[in-house]
Design brief:
- The structure is a single chain.
- β4 and β5 form a beta hairpin.
- This protein has 3 helices and 9 strands.
- With 158 residues, the chain is of the alpha+beta class.
């Protein structure tokens, strides 16, 4: 049986365990950022809920919850745990769905995607693949062995 490391909202996971899968469920407006080092066969994922914290203390207590703190944290953990260099990381992003509601004035999905792209650009990390936006929920599974990502999509009901 494969080890499945489940990443909840505002959480992250890194692994180099053979056969493991890093997985997050039901991304709608949230964004999952995946990183993979083919050289070290190490993988990581963070499940981001919002672009930035309302205060510095919240960014410290829940860094994975926000794009501005979660992405640098994932890069740091990939480096500390496995010796990954930024240049070798294959980065992909998923989620950031738009609500089907006509009165959705907050556009959280779009804002999350914009924040993720901005933070990755500031860190000089290129996005290899993006599956974002639309009106679908995504479940994302990252293979630690290969770096391949499987995405299951479901219609949003709101």
């Amino acid at each position: 049986m494969k080890l499945e490391l489940v990443v909840g909202i505002g959480e992250y996971s890194v692994s180099n365990q053979k056969g493991a899968q890093i997985k997050t469920y039901a991304l709608s407006s949230c964004v999952a950022v995946t990183m993979y080092s083919p050289l070290r066969r190490a993988a990581g994922m963070v499940h981001i809920a919002l672009p930035a914290p309302p205060s510095n203390s919240q960014g410290i207590t829940r860094p994975g919850y926000y794009a501005v703190t979660g992405i640098p944290l994932l890069v740091k953990k990939m480096s500390e745990n496995f010796g990954c260099l930024k240049e070798e990381l294959v980065v992909q992003i998923f989620g950031g769905a738009n609500s089907n509601r006509k009165n959705d004035i907050f556009n959280i999905g779009r804002k999350n995607v914009e924040a993720v792209r901005q933070v990755l650009a500031e860190l000089k990390l290129q996005i290899k693949h993006a599956d974002v936006g639309g009106s679908v929920s995504r479940t994302v599974s990252l293979s630690v062995d290969t770096g391949q990502v499987q995405v299951a999509k479901y219609p949003l009901l709101f």
